[in-house]
Amino acid sequence: MVSMKFPYLLFLCGALLSTGGAQSQSSPAGVLPSVSSVQQTAVPPVANVRDPNGPAATEPNSDDPLPVETYRKAVDLVPVIFTVTDKHGKFVKDLKQDQFKILDNNHPPKQIMSFESQTDLPLRVGLLIDASNSIRDRFLFEQQASEQFLQEIIRAQTDKAFVLAFDEVSEVTQDFTNDVSKLNAGIRVIRPGGGTAMWDAVYYACRDKMMKEKNSTPVRRAIILVSDGDDNQSRVLRQEAIEMAQRAEVIIYTISTNLSNIHDTGDHNLQALADATGGRAFYPYKLSELADNFNDIQGELRSQYSISYKPDDFSANGQFRSIQIIPENKKLKVRARKGYFAPKR
């Protein structure tokens, strides 16, 4: 593995994933939202990242040109992936469009472009494993949990995943692959030590792994974060990590390694990530509980709805716009991302 230290990067406000098909927040039949007008916006530096596919480590040089990536999509089409469960937490898969009310920035959409139940889409999964000193006594639990997850969810024919370990530095120990044995090997080489830069790890995984993975068919993108949720080394803030996940249209599922049965600040951090991206936070207190957690994640990722619409009163001003999906049946619960960033002209 080679290491690289990331300089400041320029990112375009409206950057959104391209999936080419029915994907989480995409156009009809799942084409992702778009940006016809884009503007360069500086983002904070991310902590050092070791990536097996990256160049050799280099220090940022203020005289070097900053790399810019351009993403262009249709500006006023908003795709949303969401999950519906009943009061018992079971998935509800047979609902119709007229059984939901959609609000974008508190206004009904100008036009619904598509609505469909998306099941069994190929998965693109990022497995982020906390390898900091703060979880040293729970590290075996993390490794076992992560390997069990991969065995449960990854299908070699259609799915791919990568493994990223983080302390104060993020390290890609296995890049995207459908080979579970390679992914497990990527987990086993991880050794704990150092501080914790969790927000940097989430930010990097969304921006530099998920958003740059090219797919010719619709896929579902998700991050599984196994951590105690504490952070003391990140350069980016919690909100910046959440915003990048929202831009990347990644659903984040968190698995806490806090075994105390008392929710602390770290657990609240994990809950915030899950809530903002339409995922879920899990708090297993022993390894035997993980099988049910992973089955829930797998069932959810393969049993979701997709809707795309044109918002009313839309302005390409770079501002955050809230999304609400309200079921007609008040006993049902909808989980979806909280909103999106309009592109900026």
Structure write-up:
The protein has 6 helices and 17 strands. The chain is an alpha/beta fold and 345 residues long. Helix 1 (139-153) runs antiparallel to helix 2 (180-188), helix 1 crosses helix 6 (290-301) and helix 4 (238-247) runs parallel beside helix 5. Mean pLDDT is 79; it is low at 1-44 and 55-73.
Main sheet: strands, sense, barrel:
8 strands, mixed
According to CATH, the fold-level topology of the domain at 123-301 is Rossmann fold
Spans where pLDDT lies below 50 across 5 or more residues = 1-44, 55-73
Count of helix runs: 6
Mean pLDDT: 79
Q: What is the N-to-C order of secondary-structure elements (H for helix, E for strand)?
A: EEEEEEEEHEEHHEHEHEHEEEE
Q: Write out the CATH superfamily name of the domain at 123-301.
A: von Willebrand factor, type A domain
Q: Assign the CATH class of the domain at 123-301.
A: Alpha Beta
Q: How much of the residues is beta strand, in percent?
A: 25-35%
Total beta strand runs: 17
Instruction: Assign the structural class, choosing from mainly alpha, mainly beta, alpha/beta, alpha+beta, or little secondary structure.
Output: alpha/beta
The CATH architecture category of the domain at 123-301 equals: 3-Layer(aba) Sandwich
Rg value: 19 Å
List the helices and strands and how they pair.
Elements (H helix, E strand, L loop, with lengths): L2 E2 L5 E3 L27 E3 L6 E2 L27 E8 L14 E5 L6 E9 L3 E8 L8 H15 L6 E7 L3 E8 L2 H9 L9 H13 L9 E8 L10 H10 L3 E6 L8 H13 L3 E2 L7 H12 L1 E8 L9 E8 L5 E4 L2 E3 L4
Parallel strand pairs: 4-10, 8-9, 8-11, 11-12, 12-13
Antiparallel strand pairs: 1-4, 2-3, 5-14, 5-16, 6-15, 7-14, 9-10, 15-17
